[in-house]
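Changelog-adjacent note: as of this version, every example in the card shows the full chain rather than a window. The one below runs 79 residues end to end.
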Amino acid sequence: THAVGEAKGEYKTKGDIPRNELRQIVHEMEKQMKEAAKNLEFERAAALRDELYELKNLLAQDENLKPWERIKLLTGDDD
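Full-length structure tokens:
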């Protein structure tokens, strides 16, 4: 995660990180985001939300995904 004003990390290509590892990262970040919101750390929760959006978009770019899998992923119903 980044402090306020800190530069965002860049995700170069979807091939840099294995798909399963990306899914684990997304799952862990979702837990962190919910915990931050629960603790009233809204700036941190928003930063995590934004990073999650970027990671999910990377996962959704997989050409092997079926359309319904892509929709589930992007709507947050990927469990």
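Structural remarks: Residues 15 and 57 are 13 Å apart (CA to CA).
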